[in-house]
């Protein structure tokens, strides 16, 4: 409608089946390009810059949106979300001690982390990684945090110590499910009518549950779990559930 052409860079190990989000990408007419997981981890910025240069050479102007819109500007969306959480806390009389969120690219966590520090909320903000590892995301989020500081023109004195990433529940890898994770998703759906997805919220909630069971998060803590969506991630996995 606006005349904008979309080019997506996706990481794959093999040619994907057209389903889930990939189906939606094709449905809406996006041009999809692929790279290997190693290329994506180590060179995606360079690859995307190369695609942008290619498009610019054809006389079009290209704007690069990073993975998950996870940059200094994008993180401000969840800064605003934390402000809204605080408003709802005041209205409801609830004070969340812990905020939990899945982490796949870092932007959502960054916004929450910045707001927690800038607004002096003193909450424990825990990110459950769904890929990569804690050192990777700690460095990435720190970079996003400082980029946000430059954009906004403020110094919130952010450091690595403000970032808490748990990578114990990545499992086999990004978007790859273990039987126990799928069983957990199924049980939560049947008992609580809460739909989790295998890629993001399922891994994070599974991690939160086990951290409580193992005593690393105190029972009785007031916890806000941020559900980031992901319903379409369920359907490619449907035949892996034990009840099918």
Structure description:
Helix 5 (134-152) links the parallel strand 4 (124-129) and strand 5 (164-166). The strands form two sheets. Strands 5-4-3-6 form a four-stranded parallel beta sheet. The protein has helices spanning 20-27, 37-57, 72-92, 107-118, 134-152, 179-192, 201-213, and strands spanning 7-11, 31-35, 98-103, 124-129, 164-166, 223-225. The chain has seven helices and six strands, in the order βαβααβαβαβααβ. Helix 3 packs across helix 5 and helix 4 crosses helix 5. It has two domains: 7-64, no CATH class; 72-240, Rossmann fold, CATH 3.40.50.1100. By secondary structure, the protein is α/β, with parallel strands linked by helices. 27% of the residues are buried.
Task: Give keywords.
244 residues; alpha/beta; 2 domains; 6 strands
Structure summary:
The protein has 244 residues and is of the alpha/beta class. It is built from seven helices and six strands, in the order βαβααβαβαβααβ. Strand 3 (98-103), helix 4 and strand 4 (124-129) form a beta-alpha-beta unit.
Count of helical stretches: 7
Shape: globular
Helix and strand content put the structural class at alpha/beta
Q: Quick check: average pLDDT?
A: 94
As a whole number of angstroms, the C-alpha radius of gyration is 19 Å
CATH topology group of the largest domain: Rossmann fold
Report the CATH architecture of the largest domain: 3-Layer(aba) Sandwich
Tell me the strand percentage band.
5-15%
What is the assembly state of the chains in this entry?
single chain
- What percent of the residues sit in helical stretches (DSSP H or I)? 40-55%
How do the SSEs run, as a string of H and E? EHEHHEHEHEHHE
The main pleated sheet reads as:
4 strands, parallel
Tell me the number of strands: 6
